[in-house]
Amino acid sequence: MDESAAAQARTAPGQRAPGVARVPVSLRVNGTERRLEVDTRTTLLDALRDGLKLTGTKKGCDQGQCGACTVHVDGRRMLSCLMLAASADGREVRTIEGLERDGTPHPMQEAFVRHDGLQCGYCTSGQIMSAVALLEEGRAGSDEEIREFMSGNLCRCGTYPHIVAAIREVAARGDHA
Amino acid sequence: MDRAVVGEGVDRVDARVKVSGRAAYPTDHDPPDVAHAVLVQSTIAAGRVAALDTSAAEAAPGVLAVITHENAPELCAAQGEGGPVPPPPLQSDRIVHHGQTIAVVVAETFEQATEAARLVTVLYARAEPVVDIENPRAEHVRDPFGTDDATGDVDKALAEAPVRVERTYRTAANTNNPMGPFATVASWDGDELTVHDCTQGPSRTRSDLANVLKAPRDSVRVLAPYLGGGFGAGLRTWQHTVLAAVAARQVGRPVKLVLTRKQMFTSVGHRPDTRQTLRIGATRDGRITAIDHEAWQTLSIDDANYEHVSRCSLSGYASPNISARDVQIRLHVPSPGSMRAPGDAQGNFALESALDELAHELGMDPLELRLRNHADVHPVTGQRWSSNELRACYRTGAEKFGWSRRDPEPRSMRRGRTLVGYGMAGTSFFFYQASCAARITVTRDGQAVVGSAGMDLGTGTYTVMTQLAAELLGLPLGRVRVVLGDSSLPRAPSAGGSGLTGSMGSALHDARRNLIRSFLDLVRDDTDSPLRGADVDDVRVEDGRIVREDDGRGESYTEILTRHRQDELTAEGSAEAPKEDLPVVPTGPYAAKFAEVHVDEDLGTVRVARLVTAAHCGRVLNEKTARGQIVGGTVGGIGMALFEHTVTETRTGRIANGTFGDYLVAVNADIPDLEVHFVGGPDPTSPNGTKGCGELGVPGTPAAIANAVFHATGIRVRRLPITLEQLL
User: Fold this and answer.
1) Which of B81, B352, B555, B695 is catalytic?
2) Which of chain B's termini has less CB crowding within 10 Å, N or C?
3) Do A149 and A87 share a structural domain?
């Protein structure tokens, strides 16, 4: 089953329930057009996870305070728990599932593996999405800069020095585009 | 093998699935027709629920059930295998802490359940809560673990000691806050229950759930192949896990229950706050003659928590007179529980701060004081250590850090308006290993599958067990697959006490022995086999082959299985905890920590500039993941030292900072590069040679930082976290 067929076949959140305000939403997710109908209260995070079954994006606090749910919306990093799915209508969304190119991991994913920039792995999707954006923003010029601009992504396993090493390496190689 | 597979900094075998977002955590499971449960928690800390009105919630769109103490099934208060199970939920109207679960709402969607939970109206009969450790109304439980111990005559030795230090230290409550909110997805199929749960011990959760629900153990299956961290929060079967199962049975559908971040502060344990008094006596040349340690810690009203805070004083230093006692203070607070290095994290801060104070009092280098009082044998029992390289930790750590450059005078090493301080601390952590089983299957194509119910909460269990199995079977890493986190696999202890690697590794050694024996049994009378008649002790493994030690002849697993027309051979093995009362005491890991802090003279802000750890962890199975454990623990220790403080309002018992915005944890910009050096060799207690390294990073870190802050500023901070108002 291809991705879009799978999405249409699924029950979107709240579909069975009466008396719930629902809106149609059209998103371009990882390069594919996705349509779904959502409860107006549904966040982009929950729409990605529950509606589109893209569970690589994680919910850590649901309050915009931990960074685990970081995705790219129109090329900028965004906390998907703080954005309603309805307000993402018509936008371009990239998630961790969209980083690979033709089955080849993104250099940042490879660097996280090599430098052991993860342990439990729960914050990792958000860390990597932030790290990729950091390079695109030109904010990885020094260790201090990396540490500062990665500080919105909490890691409770304490892998920060390894995350910095991974980003430093990719930034220095310059092959992240 | 041309290349050792153990010890190398091999990449984590589960790293790829994690960096791609494909690892399925408990909350990622969405069985067909799943309903969503949301908890309602109490807004008072003591009293009872006088009346509940659930009618509005029940009438709300999509709601399937509202479960309260008025309609919940009777559950069994169980004594679990690994300590008491938390009291079962919704069994009475009694409230014993703010944030206690008083209802669960089940609806078609998460949004509907969340909305309906807000519509549950509660009338409380409020009583006056007791939430302060020093409140005289609180009940004190003395010697709660039966671990109070003493040797010699501490009071007499203190009275006669030429130099004495007597101080009280406090550590704040901390909340584990793994990044993954705890979640349970429960599905019933007839009387069979399957649970995806955030647990560090699938075997334990299975037996706890069976006990609480009064179900046969074999009818419950618990899965946790991936977990978004735990740090001890997953060591008990908390109420929400039970409620998910109860709700699923009630609505006749699978139910997913995910705690909110706020509920993570009230529902899955926390590190209890402590108030500790240390009295140390010494001679003028720095020989410790007495250590007296009384540790108070907080506890909830109706639960238990094993947390031996004063333990470190019983084994830390060679004093002829020692007394160490624990006291638990019952308060209207959520149940505490284990949090990375429970007890030792707090106890070590008090002991190692007091040592630093003594060194200052004596005018002696703090490192020299520790070397002079090194415990060559267990100070209380006189037993020899199974292995102890703490001296080497001190030596290596001091050298790498450049400790000799420290000017002993406090406030002497400034750079402009920045006060620079050097501080150090030692750690002797406890040893833990528990009964564990594991299974190995070798298939005809020369692949091995290892299975055990134990799990990997990010520590690297998948990886080090892959390496260990590859070594034990003589196979390359790529031919070994490890399956974990499923209670239907051979039973295993929880991932806790830094003991899973030792426990599972020892079980793997036994399983491997049984497996090789099975292969040899197969060829016992096989005239075509060069291994005919060989005993398990006569052979070794290499390159996928079993070979005779004497003449080097042998054959591969594949050749044996093919010739005997078998697809595979499987063997189980198990290992028990080391026996007590040995002449040699099984000995945990050691570390020495050296910290440099920078304190802004005007603002009182503290930054850790560098931190060097030298650790003796026994055999290091994987340099990369072991380093990650020490680094991660150190980051947690920095958080404990400078940031983490679960604040409970004295009047209401409400946790005032239950968000990541208000409960501060270390962020990337708080952490410098952290140096880790491994010293010493394997520990002989188990065939594995490991001592455990999962928690070693925490204890020692807060004391090294506090001691460095004293050196920088001349101000002794005896209360964690160290905040700027204490330095102005």
Assistant:
1) B695
2) C
3) no
